[in-house]
Amino acid sequence: MEMLVEKADLGFGPRSWRYSMLVRNGVVEKMFVEPNKPGDPFEISDADTMLRYLAPECKAQESVSIFTKPGCTFCTQAKQMLMDHGIQYEEIVLGQDATTVSLRAVSGRATVPQIFHGRSSHWRQ
């Protein structure tokens, strides 16, 4: 496919340029090839782009994370609120999965719960 590029400037060495391809019965139906620009672009060869092509009516799963700590009643309430609204989430438990250092790095705060949805954050005490 002649997609080999040199990326030594990024510490990668020779590698295939990023792309995704839909092949049906041995025939390439669609290719999503990353634009030729500096760095290591990852804009259109991802699974979400392919899903939008295959099923434009399908809604991609929301990315939701919640920082909690054991014994926190506010955390329990926040998780219940997410469940009541049918929102799937990934729980990051302080002292188990991460520390307050990570929480401060992400949010600037060390209190829980903290809920992150996509690129925005919502804090509730």
From TrEMBL:
PROSITE patterns xrefs: GLUTAREDOXIN_2
| EC number(s) reported in the record | 1.11.1.15
Key word Ubl conjugation present: no
Q: What class of enzyme is it?
A: oxidoreductase
Q: Please give one Gene Ontology molecular function term for this protein.
A: peroxidase activity
InterPro entries from the xrefs?
Glutaredoxin, Glutaredoxin_subgr, Thioredoxin-like_sf
Tell me the keywords, alphabetical order. Answer: Oxidoreductase, Peroxidase
Q: What is this protein called in UniProt?
A: Hybrid peroxiredoxin hyPrx5
Q: Which domain of life is it from?
A: Bacteria
Q: Domain Glutaredoxin: where?
A: 64-118
Q: Which organism is it from?
A: Enterobacter agglomerans (Erwinia herbicola)
Keyword Lyase (UniProt): no
Gene3D superfamilies per UniProt: Glutaredoxin
